[in-house]
Amino acid sequence: MSEGTESAYVPKGVDLEKPNAARTYDWFLGGTTNWAVDREFGKQVLQVMPSLRTVALVNREFLRRAVRHCVRHGVRQFLDIGSGVPTVRNVHEVADELDPDSRCVYVDNEPVAVAHGRVLLEKHGDLKRHAALNADLLNVDNLWEQTRATGVLDPNEPIALLMVAVLHFVPPGGGAEEAVARYKELLPSGSYLVASHATNDGIPADRAAEAATAEAQYKRANTPIGFRSREQFTGFFEGWDLVDPGVTWAAEWRLDDLDSELTSEWADNPNASCGFVGVARKP
Ligand SMILES: C[S@@+](CC[C@H](N)C(=O)[O-])C[C@H]1O[C@@H](n2cnc3c(N)ncnc32)[C@H](O)[C@@H]1O
């Protein structure tokens, strides 16, 4: 496991005294865009919830399966909100494997994630087809304007809106439901919503205790997370057609397209993945 790098580019205004959810998640995934404060926080969280690293990797595997599903169903444009620090097998790479003309705009409210996304795209992407933006998912109009200004996505053609492992950073009552409803209005017919979300609803009893402690730690670190029930999560897809098999555990969704062994290890107890997932199409 990488120990990160202290020489990674630090954009102006970034406080490296405080851990950040994006960089801690990068460390969980084995990335290098994290600092001592993030790794220290990540280690504390893993002490109370040792499965969290696998939970993150299984979530990432769902993301790849969902992207492939969208491309196979004719969607070539991706708006990845809460995209995180770029890591191995990013959305544009997975999409490009199936359609080299696919397009992707990455959005995150963490400046380090965005700066590293830009560096990666300059080196390995195609700036006509890929962009990275700094925006908050709750500022829908600003985010949408910035996305349009890149010229990367055609707003009249279907777009897959990815909100993977991000909505729980806006706890219930914080405006996520309203924001998602507005994105769904803006997107044209044939677009997809791909989402995953941490939960404590129906997870194994030992995980529930761990999840509660981890939730308290994130709150203390000023990056609060808020779990949603299956019903609350399903509400994000309202009015759109859920793709089979509907809302499931991350370790349950379309396992016929797995590209790693990890998820199948939880086939007998998929609720250990502690996250709901779903993909829906706008009629
Ligand atoms: C756990 S990571 C998920 C990364 C990626 N989507 C994945 O599933 O592998 C969550 C990301 O959401 C970002 N985020 C949290 N709140 C956000 C907000 N209000 N607007 C935009 N991004 C946000 C964090 O900075 C972080 O990079």
TrEMBL record:
Top-level division of the source organism's lineage: Bacteria
Segments crossing the lipid bilayer: none
GO BP term, pick one: methylation
GO molecular function, a single term: methyltransferase activity
Keyword annotations: Methyltransferase, Transferase
InterPro entries: SAM-dependent_MTases_sf (IPR029063), SAM_dep_MeTrfase_SAV2177_type (IPR006764)
Keyword Methyltransferase in annotation: yes
Keyword Transferase: yes
Gene3D superfamilies: Vaccinia Virus protein VP39
Stated name of the protein: S-adenosyl methyltransferase
Gene source species: Amycolatopsis cihanbeyliensis
